Amino acid sequence: MAPGRTLWVLRHAKAQRRPPVGGGDHERVLAPRGRKDADDLGQRLGDRGDHLGLDGDLVPALVLCSTAARTVETTERVLAQMASPPPVTYLRSLYGATPEEVFEQVSMVDDEVGSLMIVGHNPTLEALVAAMPARPVPALSGGFATCGLAVFTLPVRRWEEIAPRTAGVLGVFLPPFPGSG
């Protein structure tokens, strides 16, 4: 088991304002802009994350994703460019979760997983990414945009040791993504 962990936090891409007829908020799908942003982020992520300017060894080994239609679609589109996408675990508990409940989910991840991605919703993820870094991050001062991705390094050996104000920031990626049309 390697020391330290990498946490990827991805907010779902822009969703349609209204759910499909007969559906609720949980069933809202991505808007055209959301589909484009998720595809563009997937292209930037590339096969191993190296198009983001990150070390390819840091790509997520596991994804925890809310079961909402917009998070599922975002996850599928972002991971589609990877040669070997990580397994995805869909958790209804991430829909409407508090930051503390997300921390609880993360703390239960197997310690063999060195790099984890969470895909969820605001306001939870905005509060989470604001709480993670040891120092303020200017790129996050205006909030956490749809299809925003923040990648953190955590100085912990086990996921259950994750704590606010301890993370280093490897990168913050917000749309429109460079190289996208």
Q: Which helices and strands, and how do they pair?
A:
Blueprint (H helix, E strand, L loop, with lengths): L4 E7 L20 H14 L16 E5 L2 H11 L8 E4 L7 H9 L7 E6 L3 H8 L17 E6 L13 E6 L8
Parallel strand pairs: 1-4, 2-3, 2-4
Antiparallel strand pairs: 1-5, 5-6
Helix pairs in contact: 1-2
Coarse morphology: globular
How many E-type strands?
6
Strand content: 15-25%
Through-space gap between termini: 41 Å
Helical amount: 10-25%
- The CATH architecture assignment turns out to be 3-Layer(aba) Sandwich
CATH superfamily: Phosphoglycerate mutase-like
How many strands, which pairing sense, and closed or not: the largest β-sheet? 6 strands, mixed
What does this structure look like?
- With 181 residues, the chain is an alpha/beta fold.
- It has one domain (5-173): Phosphoglycerate mutase-like (Rossmann fold), CATH 3.40.50.1240.
- The protein has 4 helices and 6 strands.
- The chain has helices at 32-45, 69-79, 99-107, 124-131, and strands at residues 5-11, 62-66, 88-91, 115-120, 149-154, 168-173.
- The protein has a 6-stranded mixed β-sheet, sandwiched between helices.
- Helix 2 links the parallel strand 2 and strand 3 (88-91).
- Helix 1 packs parallel to helix 2 (69-79).
- The longest helix has 14 residues, at 32-45.
- It starts with a strand and ends in an 8-residue tail after the last strand.
- The mean pLDDT is 89.
